[in-house]
Amino acid sequence: MLNQKPGLYGSIQSENPENENIRESFIESAEDIRELIGDEEAFAEKFEELGEEFDLEGAQNRTDMVIEFLSDEVR
Predict the structure, then answer these.
(1) Is 47 in contact with 41 (CB distance < 8 Å)?
(2) Tens-digit pLDDT profile for residues 55-67
(3) Are 46 and 54 in contact (CB under 8 A)?
(4) What gap in Å lies between CA 37 and CA 14, rounded to an integer?
(5) The CA-based dihedral angle spanning residues 62, 64, 65, 69, taken in that order and rounded to the nearest 10 degrees
């Protein structure tokens, strides 16, 4: 992203009316995580919860399949 034109991302941020809500949600989430720092058990629970929510196991499996495919193509 940092390799792109700043005007593009500036206009994406300023012209999309939903971005203010998204930024607020991001800040709230970051503050929630900050409150978990120091409580290893609560942090681990949140970490696991987010992993399930974003289907990280499925994403890892799909990534592995792509890497395997590309490796076969290079050989």
Answers:
(1) no
(2) 888 999 999 999 9
(3) no
(4) 32
(5) 140
